[in-house]
TrEMBL record:
<dbReference type="GO" id="GO:0071949">
    <property type="term" value="F:FAD binding"/>
</dbReference>
<feature type="signal peptide">
    <location>
        <begin position="1"/>
        <end position="17"/>
    </location>
</feature>
<keyword id="KW-0560">Oxidoreductase</keyword>
<comment type="similarity">
    <text>Belongs to the oxygen-dependent FAD-linked oxidoreductase family.</text>
</comment>
<dbReference type="Pfam" id="PF01565">
    <property type="entry name" value="FAD_binding_4"/>
</dbReference>
<dbReference type="GO" id="GO:0016491">
    <property type="term" value="F:oxidoreductase activity"/>
</dbReference>
<keyword id="KW-0732">Signal</keyword>
<protein>
    <recommendedName>
        <fullName>FAD-binding PCMH-type domain-containing protein</fullName>
    </recommendedName>
</protein>
<feature type="domain" description="FAD-binding PCMH-type">
    <location>
        <begin position="113"/>
        <end position="292"/>
    </location>
</feature>
<dbReference type="InterPro" id="IPR036318">
    <property type="entry name" value="FAD-bd_PCMH-like_sf"/>
</dbReference>
<dbReference type="InterPro" id="IPR016166">
    <property type="entry name" value="FAD-bd_PCMH"/>
</dbReference>
<dbReference type="InterPro" id="IPR012951">
    <property type="entry name" value="BBE"/>
</dbReference>
<dbReference type="InterPro" id="IPR006094">
    <property type="entry name" value="Oxid_FAD_bind_N"/>
</dbReference>
<dbReference type="InterPro" id="IPR050432">
    <property type="entry name" value="FAD-linked_Oxidoreductases_BP"/>
</dbReference>
<dbReference type="InterPro" id="IPR016169">
    <property type="entry name" value="FAD-bd_PCMH_sub2"/>
</dbReference>
<dbReference type="Pfam" id="PF08031">
    <property type="entry name" value="BBE"/>
</dbReference>
Length: 575
């Protein structure tokens, strides 16, 4: 079958209209939209790797109804794995806009792409990226970049866009002796499509470990590291952005570049924590690789059978957190609801069971005094980090903690807030979990304590564009709603608004701090200060230098309010 033939509604000729306003990007409904010959030419240019976007759930809608296939999609709809190997669809019903939800076919008569890309190039090299950039600039259409689609801010999609799908850039090489003016030691070169867990597994086979994510399926070289990127090893080695040694990129003026602290240093600086997919298209990274070795870890749960005791236990955990943060390499990740508190993982590289027990003994004593009982409590030692983490948090369980049907907001909480204002912070968490105005779904509050201060992780101030608030944060705090598969568009909008409200409640207690952009909201009015802080103006200068015509555009990306804005139709138009 020819590449452009598909069985979706997109195969039908769109109703075209006259659009002469070149200050807006064209959509498939415009007469200026590239014709079939244009797309054929692009397909030849990229070696037959042009793909037409298709809604994942088209088998649930007429005229392409297929009950068996529809059932398969329904079973996988809330699982993020469905989206990684698709060139255009993203793991966010909010950004898919429910335009083809497999559970709403009885309510909706149509199945369309709506917010996601119309076409995608399966990127395999710099030449295919250059061809894609040339095409969108010549044809005046929108460009998007999609790796895994693991994104809650809509940055991996765009209505009527041509997507650069980087997920199949999957090369990986161990570099035993990487040498530069800033670092000498082991390193790993990874293609942009490599996901956290597979990089960790390969590195471990060579006696190494890397700074991966809590979610094993994030793309390391994509939005994870370019937006900072924290994980269970952050207290020992820093954020993912602190570990990047160099980037291989294509810029929108069609240059194929290497960016390091000494070559194209301003671009390297911006890419290292200053926002993803906004300055250049990343093809690969070289990241630090650290000697692997013994790691001790603990996990447990507490069930809320007595509200007073339950909240006393949570209070104690937070009271102890500043002490935890002073322990070299110690990192803890947890989440809780009205029903349970779960320590997902506490890890201590190089430690023993006795060391871990000593660290947590104060908490254990309080739990005993409260007459509470641990569920599933275990402390184990493994010879490598990836083996330990997989035992404590199996990859399937970790991915389930970041479901597709999820909306999340976050805030970096400084030590002083926990030390001096813990009562108010816990009252906010309580209000979030007991919010009766929630339009359906399950709410959890999460936290990760990792000390990524400059002194602790050996990173010089100003060496990268990581949000400065990270360096003084005790923990990253989040609140998330997981919602039913059949949630309507109106329900999704209410949930988005609710998370923004909760985010603001925590913000009121943490003035001058910020949020981890990968766990944040696209419509936060304070996005410049909350997501970029004092780095914003310098980042804007880098943006103007390397992408002066703003070919790259995403919600809340640096410069997003200067050049383009989305109209009610989802079209990008000049401000």
């Amino acid at each position: 079958m020819a590449w452009w033939l598909c069985s979706t509604a997109l195969a039908l000729a769109p109703i075209q209209r006259n659009t002469t306003n070149t200050s807006c990007r064209y959509l498939p409904t415009d007469k200026e939209w590239p014709n079939r010959a244009d797309w054929d030419t692009l397909n030849v240019t990229v070696g037959g790797r042009l793909l037409r976007g298709e809604p994942l759930a088209q088998s649930c809608y007429r005229p392409h109804e297929d009950p068996a296939k529809c059932s398969e999609v329904q079973q996988a709809w809330g699982l993020d794995g469905l989206y990684y190997d698709d060139p255009v669809n993203v793991m966010s019903p909010f950004w898919l806009n429910n335009s083809c939800n497999p559970f709403l076919s009885s309510l909706n008569n149509t199945c369309t792409l709506d917010n996601v890309a119309s076409y995608a190039i399966n990127v395999t090299d710099a030449a295919s990226v250059i061809a894609g950039i040339k095409f969108v600039q010549q044809k005046n259409i929108r460009l998007s970049i999609k790796n895994t689609g693991h994104d809650y801010l809509g940055r991996s999609s765009g209505k009527g866009s041509l997507a650069l799908w980087t997920h199949n850039l999957r090369d990986m090489a161990i570099i035993k002796n990487y040498t530069s003016s800033k670092y000498s030691g082991s390193a790993v070169k990874i293609g942009a499509g490599m996901q956290s867990h597979e990089v960790e597994e390969i590195a471990a086979k060579h006696g190494l470990r890397v700074t991966g994510g809590l979610c094993p399926s994030v793309g390391l070289a994509g939005g994870f590291s370019q937006n900072g990127g924290y994980g269970q090893l952050a207290s020992l080695y820093g954020l993912a952005a602190d570990n990047v040694l160099e980037y291989e990129v294509v810029t929108t003026d069609l240059r194929h570049l290497i960016a390091t602290p000494s070559t194209n240093a301003d671009l390297y600086w911006a890419l290292s924590g200053g926002g993803s997919g906004n300055y250049a298209v990343v093809l690969s990274q070289i990241i630090k690789a650290h000697p692997d070795g013994q790691v001790t870890g603990t996990t447990f749960s507490l069930v809320n059978t007595n509200s007073t005791a339950f909240w006393s236990a949570i209070q104690t955990w937070y009271q102890l957190s500043p002490r935890f943060n002073l322990i070299p390499g110690f990192t803890a990740s947890w989440l809780f609801s009205n029903e349970y508190f779960r320590l997902t993982a506490a890890t201590l590289p190089g430690g023993t069971v006795a060391d871990m027990d000593a660290i947590l003994q104060g908490f254990y004593q309080v739990i005993k005094e409260l007459n509470m009982t641990f569920v599933g409590k275990k402390t184990i030692v493994k010879p490598s980090f990836v083996e330990l983490y997989d035992t404590l948090v199996p990859p399937s369980q970790a991915d389930a903690s970041f479901p597709a049907n999820n909306t999340i907001g976050s805030r970096l909480v400084p030590t002083a807030v926990v030390r001096d204002n813990l009562t108010d912070l816990l009252n906010v968490y309580r209000d979030i979990l007991q919010d009766e105005t929630l339009p359906g779904g399950v709410t959890v509050v999460g936290g990760t304590s990792n000390n990524v201060s400059h002194v602790n992780v050996g990173v010089s101030p100003g060496s990268n564009a990581v949000l400065p608030a990270w360096r003084g944060a005790l923990l990253s705090s989040s609140a998330a709603i997981s919602f039913p598969d059949n949630t309507t568009v109106q329900g999704l909008q209410l949930i988005q608004a609710k998370v923004n409200t909760w985010q603001d409640w925590v913000k009121a207690l943490t003035p001058g701090s910020g949020s981890y952009i990968n766990e944040a909201t696209y419509d936060n009015p304070d996005w410049k200060s909350d997501y970029y802080g004092s780095n914003y103006e310098r980042l804007l200068q880098v943006k103007k230098k390397y992408d002066g015509d703003f070919t790259l555009w995403q919600h809340t990306s640096v410069g997003a309010d200067l050049y383009w804005q989305e109209d009610a139709e989802g079209r990008l138009c000049r401000v």
